[in-house]
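Quick one:
INPUT:
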């Protein structure tokens, strides 16, 4: 009986939180038609499995060793009425990662873009968040800690272990990994906590996150099978001519995208005009460029 009461209480709490989200919905293009797969009024508090409608629209294809790519076309409210989502899935067994830090003006301005990557790279994306041109939070490169951990309730850390594995960990777990990390950075806000749970801050207002702000987004997640996935959104209105405009999902909507695609934990990277990604396919590089130079890039190379 206690378990039943607890389950009912959890369901009521989830429904109340969902009802407090700004009204919105997301549809995906499947087989020539738009199908709604998420609404703010029925937003889950936890993603235990991928959403069947969204998953049916994903057609993964291998583009390099350990790298798969897919795209989604989404339709939402307001500025998100036409959004393309570029997805890249990474198998850490086949690739190795590293952080590149590039700044100018005494370290106060970012200087990295995806055009800066070496020809040997197979994937690159802007990493973390920054303030006044400086990366925020914990930075480890080549086993050397360059900045101490930052503290924030919605931060996660991406870590590349010395054994080659990749993980997303909570910031309060950093101490237990500190000696085993080759590269690491922190970012925020968390989109999914461990096990696919949507943070309370993304389920109800007045918890420090703007739930209505729309922007182009970049996020990274850990899938349940141990692989990593990167998602980048682009505005697709007017045939994609204005793809670099910072129009896109809200934070709760981006959380839903990551949860519906099977992520067990996920965190935002700097989006807006900073969001950028490069991917080497069989016929050469593809670039989704940003409009701002940033101080930190995450680069993947063949193992």
């Amino acid at each position: 009986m206690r378990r039943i009461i607890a389950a009912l209480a959890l369901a009521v709490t989830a429904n109340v939180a969902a009802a407090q989200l700004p009204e919105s919905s997301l549809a995906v293009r499947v087989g020539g038609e738009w199908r709604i797969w998420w609404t703010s009024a029925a937003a889950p508090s936890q993603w235990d499995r991928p959403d069947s409608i969204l998953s049916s629209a994903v057609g993964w294809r291998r583009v390099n060793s350990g790298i798969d790519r897919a795209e989604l076309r989404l339709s939402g409210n307001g500025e998100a009425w036409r959004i393309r989502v570029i997805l890249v899935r990474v198998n850490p067994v086949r690739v190795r990662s590293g952080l590149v830090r590039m700044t100018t003006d005494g370290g106060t301005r970012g200087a990295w873009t995806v055009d800066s990557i070496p020809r040997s790279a197979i994937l690159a994306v802007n990493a973390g968040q920054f303030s006044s041109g400086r990366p925020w939070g914990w930075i480890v490169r080549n086993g050397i800690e360059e900045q101490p951990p930052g503290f924030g309730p919605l931060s996660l850390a991406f870590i590349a272990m010395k054994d080659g594995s990749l993980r997303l960990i909570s910031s309060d777990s950093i101490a237990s990994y500190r000696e085993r990390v080759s590269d690491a950075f922190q970012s925020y806000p968390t989109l999914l906590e461990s096990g696919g749970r949507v943070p309370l801050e993304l389920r109800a207002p007045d918890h420090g996150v703007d739930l209505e702000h729309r922007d182009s987004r970049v996020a990274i997640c850990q899938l349940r099978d141990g692989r990593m996935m990167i998602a980048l959104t682009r505005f697709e209105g007017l045939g994609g001519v204005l793809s670099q405009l910072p129009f896109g999902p809200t934070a709760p909507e981006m959380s839903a995208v990551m949860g519906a695609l099977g992520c067990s934990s996920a965190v935002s990277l700097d989006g807006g005009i900073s969001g950028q990604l490069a991917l080497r396919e069989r016929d050469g590089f593809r670039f989704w460029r940003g409009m701002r130079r940033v101080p930190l890039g995450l680069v993947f190379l063949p193992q």
